[in-house]
Amino acid sequence: MGDDPFGKFIEETFKENGVDTSRLLIDPSARTTLAFVSLKAGGVPDFAFFRNPGADMLLKTSELDESFIQNARIFHYAGISLTEEPARSATLAGADIAQEDGLITSYDPNLRLSLWDSPESAKRGIAEGLTGASIVKLNEEELHFLVGETPDLPTAVQALLKKSGSIALVFVTRGPKGCHYATRKVSGDVSGFDVTPLDTTGAGDAFMGAVLYQLIEHKANIDSIGDLSKSELDSIAKFANAVGAISVTRRGAISSLPTRSEVEAFLAGGRPQITTETREFQSETRKEFVPTVFTAEDEFEEPEIQAFHAPEIIEEPEAASQDLQAYLTQNIVPNEKPAFPMDDEFEESTLVQPEIQAFRAPEIIEEPEAASQDLQAYLAQSAVPNEKPTFPMLDEYEDEPEKKSPALPIQADEAPIEPAITAEDDQAALQEYLAQNLVEEQPVQTDNEDVETETTSQEDQDALWAYLNQNKLEDADADLQAYLKQNTNDHPEA
């Protein structure tokens, strides 16, 4: 973990749930990897990872505690740990230690193509993880990615079993259809449960956690998992399907996991408690730490706070925001499309402006690298809690920024509109600016005689006075003078 609020949050969550954190390593030189999750239709998650590098990528083989691994029952690892060195070598070394000492080794390929250099490197790297696994859990997409297209699911699973002699048991999750399982002796399908999904984030992990829990309950070991009977595997798969089904009716990944009593009640014919709120942890001191997750259907006023889940995560929201600023500044990579959380949230919002779209889709501007760098600088300065985002003006992307002119002051709740100063005729540019800012108010009288209006129409004057009156700026006339002076140097006659 990184030495940051996100790592501390995860560590505290582990402790509250009885997880031994005595071997947890804190790396002060790197940040905790962040995964932003946006929900598509049906609660299907879309992940955007921020790590450059993340602390988890820096685990070294020399940091492994062999005796700690040897005293375990199961060693579980995932494909995300195989994307970069030195974590790849450390993960595979840990699996080797576990296998040599007779532990069950559990592997989840967890395909995330955005974390690999190419699909080919992903296939090679994930396949390397199969060599030390005794149990493999994957979904249908990941299965076909590894073995190619096959006539049916059982044939694909048999092709996977041939890739490594160490594999004794395979589970393929199939969403609402349930799962398929196979050993080298038996195979079967177990139907899923009819629930309405709210958030499927972590459903595969919930399923696999339940499988491993059931294996421990059955006192299974490396030698016996391949000999489990069909009835035993049916029972294990049904329990795991129930855990996965309950988890998708709640928001979040960890907070959506059910208790054993909830699963037993569900299997007895009850229904999971479906809620749109994240469940609170048991600890009274941690209730403020539970993050709230938002979807496109939720109403919100400050999208930048909800999107980054800042103030709900830790007790000090301002510190969290500052940490997030520093983290994003360090980790956003130029030329990489910034994947903002829950893009759909902004589609109906009145805050949507062209420059925001540029950040979410760099291809609409000519220089995406410049846009990404600008976003880094912007976030470093502007990610402040409870403050409506004010995005940079489009003219920041012009080739000659030194020729930009300052915008006239506007009220905080108005969307900034930059005056057009690129027209050959500066007088026309001023009129265009005034037309853009025209407000439906009657002109007010003033004793100020300093503002030059001889060259504008009556309509322009009315709009100008309405603007000055609306903003109640003591120095508005001086500001206008400065604006006119700067923009008429090339055309003294104007």
State the end-to-end CA separation: 63 Å
Average predicted confidence as pLDDT = 74
* Biggest β-sheet: strands ordered side by side in the sheet: 3-4-5-6-7-8
Radius of gyration: 29 Å
Specify the overall morphology: elongated
Q: How many β-strands, per DSSP?
A: 8
Structure description:
This protein starts with a helix and ends in a 7-residue tail after the last helix. It contains 17 helices and eight strands. The protein has a domain at 414-494. Strand 1 and strand 2 (45-50) form a beta hairpin. The chain has a six-stranded mixed sheet, sandwiched between helices. The protein has a two-stranded antiparallel ribbon with strand order 1-2. Helix 5 (140-147) crosses helix 6 (153-161), helix 7 packs antiparallel against helix 8 (230-247) and helix 12 packs antiparallel against helix 14 (368-382). The protein has helices at residues 5-16, 66-70, 87-100, 119-130, 140-147, 153-161, 203-217, 230-247, 260-267, 303-308, 310-313, 317-331, 354-360, 368-382, 426-436, 458-471, 476-487; strands spanning 34-39, 45-50, 74-78, 104-108, 135-139, 169-173, 179-182, 187-190. The model is unreliable at 275-315, 333-366, 382-412, 419-423, 439-446 and 448-455 (pLDDT under 50). The chain is 37% helix and 8% strand. It is of the alpha/beta class.
Question: Quick recap of the structure?
Answer:
It is built from 17 helices and 8 strands.
Task: Offer a few descriptive terms.
two-stranded antiparallel sheet; alpha/beta; 37% helix; elongated
Write the topology of this structure.
Elements: H1 5-16, E1 34-39, E2 45-50, H2 66-70, E3 74-78, H3 87-100, E4 104-108, H4 119-130, E5 135-139, H5 140-147, H6 153-161, E6 169-173, E7 179-182, E8 187-190, H7 203-217, H8 230-247, H9 260-267, H10 303-308, H11 310-313, H12 317-331, H13 354-360, H14 368-382, H15 426-436, H16 458-471, H17 476-487
Parallel strand pairs: 3-4, 4-5, 5-6
Antiparallel strand pairs: 1-2, 6-7, 7-8
